[in-house]
TrEMBL record:
Keyword tags: Signal
Annotated CDD domains: CE4_NodB_like_5s_6s (cd10918)
All copies of domain NodB homology, residue ranges: 94-256
Organism: Actinoplanes lutulentus
Pfam families: Polysacc_deac_1
PANTHER family assigned to the protein according to its UniProt record, in alphabetical order: POLY-BETA-1,6-N-ACETYL-D-GLUCOSAMINE N-DEACETYLASE, PTHR34216
Record GO biological process: carbohydrate metabolic process
PROSITE patterns named in the record: NODB
Protein name stated in the entry: Polysaccharide deacetylase
Single Gene Ontology MF annotation: hydrolase activity, acting on carbon-nitrogen (but not peptide) bonds
Compartmental location: Secreted
Top-level lineage group: Bacteria
Gene Ontology CC terms: extracellular region
Length: 256
């Protein structure tokens, strides 16, 4: 185990990371100084920033993030991003492709109205087993978001860490979520995001293989560096953000 992983494990043990996650403004302030050494991208590169919940208190902050990013390059949809990776569309500068994970009710109430108003496309990676549970979207909500033009991908059934599952269970998480979202929304689901998203720790090569065999064309991780034409869509690198973070903190994740 190399030191950064050991440190990360230790921090997890201390519960610091989860405590900070529960206080995103504090987390953002702690991250911000490291943003001094970074700048938002100016060179050609494809970025996949993603969010989870967007509580009403952070609506203005999400707008600010999106306005800032869009000053650096266009916000494009998932299909267009995959076309850039395939070399079918030119990468003319920084480009941003937005996604949201889990099944948060705030996608309907807060995120979607902002995205529609700002004409920003987005992918929603849905944990199918969370749909209909308290505090989460219903299938009817998802159908309405889909009808409004948003894309849906799979984020497993239960949100368990795939790397911890035996072969059969992991395959069920990957395949059953696809089938259920397809049945409920009447669309084809071809994009997958692994819960937590770190290779080896959170998912294995096996899971990428199973996803490809199940008919997915893309597989998203939470590795952060920019992507370029020729990079594999079965290894999408996304940058996790929280709307409460100041732009200085965003710069620690989305940078040249
Ligand atoms: Zn998730």
């Amino acid at each position: 185990m190399h030191p950064p992983t050991a440190l990360k494990k230790r921090l997890n043990e201390l519960g610091l990371r989860s405590r900070l996650r529960a206080h995103p403004r504090t987390q953002g302030r702690i991250l911000a100084p490291a943003g001094l050494l970074r700048r938002l991208p100016s060179a050609p590169g494809l970025y996949f920033p993603f969010y989870h919940d967007v509580l009403p208190a952070y609506a203005g902050d999400l707008r600010r993030h999106l306005r800032t990013l869009s000053r650096h390059g266009p916000m494009i949809g998932w299909d267009e991003a995959l076309a850039v990776l395939a070399g079918d569309k030119p990468l003319t500068g920084p480009m941003f492709c937005l996604s949201f994970d889990d099944a948060h009710l705030s996608w309907r109430d807060v995120a979607a109205p902002i995205l529609l108003e700002m004409k920003v496309p987005a992918m929603f990676f849905l944990t199918s087993g969370m749909v209909g549970q308290q505090g989460n979207l219903t299938w009817q909500d998802c159908r309405q978001l889909s009808a409004a033009g948003f894309q849906f991908g799979s984020h497993t059934v239960t949100h368990h860490r795939l790397a911890d599952q035996d072969d059969e269970t992991a395959a069920r998480e990957i395949r059953d979520s696809k089938r259920e979202i397809e049945d409920e929304l009447g669309i084809e689901v071809t994009d997958f995001a692994a819960p937590y998203g770190h290779p080896a720790v959170d998912f294995r090569e096996r899971d990428v293989r199973v996803a490809r065999d199940a008919g997915y064309r893309s597989f998203a991780t939470t590795l952060r560096p920019a992507m370029h034409p020729g990079d594999s869509p079965m290894w999408i690198r996304r940058q996790g953000l929280h709307p409460a973070w100041p732009i200085m903190a965003v710069r620690t994740r989305v940078h040249d």
